[in-house]
Amino acid sequence: MVRANGASEQWLVSAALLLALVAAPDAGAMDPWEAGNGDNQPLYTKNTLSHGFVQQHDLDDVFAPPSNDVDCMIVPTLAGHSYEARINGTRVEFDWGMCGSCPQFERVDVNGAILTEDVGVVNEGGGESNDRSVRWIATANTTLEYVRVTGDTSFPEGPNEVYTIRFWDTTYSVPRWNNSSGQVTVFLIQNLVQAPVTVNVDFYNAAGLQLASTGTTLQPHGLFVFNTGTVPQLANQAGHAYVSHTAGYGGLAGKAVALEPATGFSFDTPLMPIPD
């Protein structure tokens, strides 16, 4: 009888704990990144993404529609650098432009105003809903910009509605260009994605002083050929460069070729991504 009573008491305790967990209003919506102050609003989130970092979240929300789960993540940026946040590894169908009540993915400011909408990782406009990307070129050094994931507002989502988010600084570096001592440098930059992208090239001397910049819209699979000898500010100068863009991580390929007409020599310097 003692064992039976002990077993009964243990079962009652377990049942009570289970009921308490089910009744707790936040239990179903607490993925590992929602602890502390939570991440439902940009102003209060403490979750920060950094280059190459990977996180898994869920869109679980215990409340009935139109309530929905919201995940906000800080994305620190440097002016002139380019960035990408990408969602995949999910069965969730995100909005690709046709469904206002579907889950959303976007870059926002501290007040929640949208700064950049998402696009398909591969085929934008083709209904690609499970692989979404936000890509932008930063205009300021800031820690007050965010990416935000919003759950569906038409039906409740559970703990199996998970997604993986990745974040990259997509800026390329070019360690060498030279327009002095009889050399002139030509940049060749190729667009590897199936959409038009913005490409900016900023030129610096060895001391880190910005000398000039140029930009273009590069068409799908297009090639940008730029002769730096046409820029007066770069005459008799040498240094390094940064290439920022909206092609996403690994979305460009290219090099800077320093030509020496007097000897026929050429010196190739490839675009270098920040290692993942």
Task: Kindly describe this structure.
This protein is mainly β and 276 residues long. The chain folds into three domains: 1-25; 31-169, Sandwich (Jelly Rolls), CATH 2.60.120; 172-273, Hypothetical Protein Tm1070, Chain: A. It is built from one helix and 18 strands. It has one helix spanning 2-23; strands at residues 54-58, 70-74, 82-88, 104-109, 114-117, 119-120, 132-137, 145-150, 162-169, 172-178, 184-191, 197-205, 210-218, 223-227, 238-245, 252-260, 265-270, 272-273. The chain has a five-stranded antiparallel β-sheet, with no helix packed on it. A five-stranded antiparallel β-sheet has the order 13-12-15-10-18, with no helix packed on it. A four-stranded antiparallel β-sheet has the order 2-8-4-5, with no helix packed on it. The longest helix has 22 residues, at 2-23. The chain starts with a helix and ends with a strand. Mean pLDDT is 86; it is low at 11-29.
Summarize it.
The protein has one helix at 2-23; strands spanning 54-58, 70-74, 82-88, 104-109, 114-117, 119-120, 132-137, 145-150, 162-169, 172-178, 184-191, 197-205, 210-218, 223-227, 238-245, 252-260, 265-270, 272-273. By secondary structure, it is mainly β. The protein has 3 domains: 1-25; 31-169, Jelly Rolls (Sandwich), CATH 2.60.120.380; 172-273, Hypothetical Protein Tm1070, Chain: A.
Write the layout of secondary structure elements.
Elements: H1 2-23, E1 54-58, E2 70-74, E3 82-88, E4 104-109, E5 114-117, E6 119-120, E7 132-137, E8 145-150, E9 162-169, E10 172-178, E11 184-191, E12 197-205, E13 210-218, E14 223-227, E15 238-245, E16 252-260, E17 265-270, E18 272-273
Antiparallel strand pairs: 1-9, 2-8, 3-7, 3-9, 4-5, 4-8, 6-7, 10-15, 10-18, 11-14, 11-16, 12-13, 12-15, 16-17
